[in-house]
Amino acid sequence: MVADFKTAIVLAAFIAISPATTSAQTAIVLAAFIAISPATTSAQTASVDDSIRRLRDADVAVVGAQLASLRDSSLNDSRVIAELVILLDDLRILEKRMAPAGSETIQDRAWYCTLKLNSSAVPRILASMKTLRSDRAIQLALAAIARIGKEDASIFAELMPYTRSATVVTRSHAIGALDAVGGNDSNTVAQLAAFLKDDHPNVRWATVNTLRKRLDHLGPALEILIELLNDDSDVHVLISNHAAIPQKLCGRVAELLAEIGPPAKSAIPRLRQLMNSFSDQDVRVWAACAVCMISETAPPDALEVIGEVLLSGMQKKYGGNDAAAAITKLGPRGLPLVDELQNARNHKSPTVRRAIIAAFFAVDPEKAISRTLPLVEDKDELVAQTAIRAISSRCNSDREVIDSYIAALERFDGIYSEPANAAIDALEKLGALAESAIPALKRLSDNDKAPETLREKAALAAKRIEQP
Fold it and tell me: What is the DSSP string of 18-72?
């Protein structure tokens, strides 16, 4: 976080430029800041509650500056936690921005601070949530618990009332929080499984996700999951490879059944129906993947479905599918699809090309590097970066590998630095074995078009390789 002298500058700047800031507000902010500093005295501690409580009524710029200046050492103070939760209800704008990012509010900044808390803050967050007025504020608090929470039976029980909210998003966030604090046992699974019957698919989707790390204790929940293969509800997932395209709940269930494996053998008839006739290609892929993982050996017709979908839409730059992810999950069982994976290196979609890298290493680790090397030269910077990192993780120092890293350095065009950054990391990791890359690293360090950070990184790598 911001150091003391920087904090003082920030506060002074905000106070100076904010005409609405009164001397009384200034005193409140400074008193609160002093009170939560590590050097807090007992007298200051006694007054901190009032100071922080009144802080939310101060000028918006002052509140924003105070949030920005909070140090990590202060964040887990119980009074600070309570104030952060209260500020989740504060929609005053700190900074106006153009779409799509939108304006930053005090609510946003307070939430970012809650994500830096540790698990010991969860009880205080829960206690303070009772003061929140808006559904959105409650949802953000629950999302914070889902992010920082650890197993705790008492917290699990306290969260249960939020699963009965009339608001779907609140129920979904509550499920996420339960996932974080719930145990890996049959009792927890039984309680979570009840939400598989919620009347909204978003909640059912969230519940399916909670079962992924509890596969050894599914019990009766397995039969409910298999029933959900008949549920073709659409669910919009905010963070996914499919952006605005809705995903099918039955596809998500099929993916989970692939992880469960043989114990889900009673699902095969329905999975085969989805694999052969369902309209959504990703549902077909995950149904076929589940059939492969549940069966003793992967059936050729199921593998054929996955390969067919992988190579579909080859000319669509913005297309994509889950076939490569399914092959990655298959591991060595997906080896018969290696030809399809190699053909997919020519897919127009960078999303597909990037996904096949993990699949190469999953199905045949021994030959994965040679199959991945062509993607180091990919025109999409993220595909090239992913390929370099995947190869580097194997610490391979073959001549052709080092040459591919050097080529990535020399392809730097002054705009996209991701491949060059990854190549520098890979070469430095090899140390003296990458001596042949020193001239290229030095040229990059002298490149005026390169960002200063990239130039410095290249120079340091060259020095470390030269003098290990």
Answer: -TT--HHHHHHHHHHHHHTSTT--HHHHHHHHHHHHHHTTS-HHHHHHHHHH--H
Contact criterion met (CB below 8 Å) for 70 and 4: no
Are 81 and 121 in contact by the 8 Å Cβ rule? The answer is yes
Cα 301 to Cα 296: distance, rounded to the nearest angstrom? 14
Chain CA centroid to CA 189, Å: 24
Averaged confidence pLDDT in the chain: 87
Write out pLDDT tens, residues 222-235. 999 999 999 999 99
Task: Give the dihedral of Cα atoms 413, 414, 416, 418; nearest 10 deg.
Answer: 90
The predicted-structure confidence for 12-24, as pLDDT tens digits, reads as follows: 333 333 333 333 3
Rounded CA-CA distance 301/320 in Å is 22
- Burial class for 81, CB neighbours closer than 10 Å (0-12, 13-18, 19+): buried
Backbone angles phi, psi at 91, to 5 degrees: -100, 15
What are the counts of helices (DSSP H) followed by strands (DSSP E) for the chain? Answer: 27, 4
Give me the amino acid identity at 150.
K
Beta strands in 162-293 (DSSP E): 234-235, 247-248
